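name: query_chain
kind: protein
chains: 1
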Amino acid sequence: MIHMDSRDRLISEIKQCLMLAVPLAAAQLAQSATGFVDTVMMGWLGSQTIASGGLGAAVFTFLLLISTGIVSAVSPLAAEAYGAGKPEQIGKIVRQGLGISLLLGIPIVIVLWHGRTLLLLLGQNAATAALAETYLRAIALGFIPGLGFAVLKSFLSALSQPQLVIITVVLGTLLNITANYVLMFGKLGLPALGLAGIGWASTLSLWSMFIVLAIYIYSQQQFRNYRIFDTSFKYTFTQENRRIFREIFQVGLPIGGLIAVEAGLFTVVTFLLGKLGTTALAAHQIALQTAGMSFQIALGISLATTVRVGQLAGEQDKSGVRLAGYVGISLGALSMGIAGIIFWLIPKSVVSLYLDINNPSNENVVNLAVRLLVVAAIFQIVDGVQVTAAGALRGLKDTRIPLLIGIFAYWCVGLPIGYALGIWLGYGAIGLWWGLAIGLASAAIVLTWRFIAGGRGQKAGGNNINTFKKQGNRQ
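structure:
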């Protein structure tokens, strides 16, 4: 039987995690919905447009995800400083994060501006690359505010105040959809910009979300002590700021690397399925889009877990850190378990959201997509565990070893097994997806073990996790 104090603390931690996780998960879902709607609206302009726009969107999203992963190091660093009661330190961390957004953003904007050259180097069709460049040039100008928004979102989350984030993202999503329609087709007296209009709509949305959060933070008295927007010399070029700058990269680069590793794995699997024919590829895209939506909920819980672990590490509360990690991992598994039950019980209803399941011409795709969703149902729980375990470790600023774990689990376990099952043994898409499931399970097991080992003060290796263990030993 759980002691009453322990039970009260458990309930309190669950509430604290959910208060962070619900708005963050909702924000992740809203952002995913934006990409989905953009793709649908590209289709209104024709097959060539959706091919070019989809290619451009894939390039932009890939670079944004990696860069966002790097600046998301602001979250655990600021959360730890918040837990330690160091508001001035938080301000320095966020200012450095905004500076790094510029440092990363400027060269990437230049690359996106010359998107046609990049796509031609990657072997894409000249006509497709030229049309994609019109989209990339329009959306490139939204890259830097997209990173700035990620930094400010991390700041508010670290202070356990993410409520405005969901409001901002929902309003930004609605603005994006409306602007898509107006700029694509030239409504309200504006010229019809076609695919470029979708890019400009995204840029408008990204700038709007960044400006809203910036104005809110600047105008609220409760945030004045953090001096987020103070760019005077004494707050910029100091030895401590250089240390924080290096620490953000030390923590953030492995986060961005892990995102690249995961995205690269799914890209390779998609290419392999493309070789198996359009049926396999279409079914894969349906199942992947569906699993991706449920994953956003677990990702929101993971972001909340990072904050809670970081805050409690700053307070040097060893048992609290362990509890926060366990709660986050459990909630991640629970949320994905519910999604898995839905995929298992009504897969055909899920597929009907994408295709007319009564159309005989869709029968093969529908049947395969249903089978893939059954596989997805089985690996949902381990997917939730691995992302929240990584979030818990991120709260301890332990990111380099998780990157190596990800490389091993996804590329040395998941991909070879999937290739063997799907290609060599002839199980096709089902075999490749079982490879993904096994890779995710491997990551879940090792990442969870690493957190448990570190949380108990055992020898776990790594960079900043040892700092937490020393803090715990002093209690």
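note: The chain has two domains: 15-237, 252-475.
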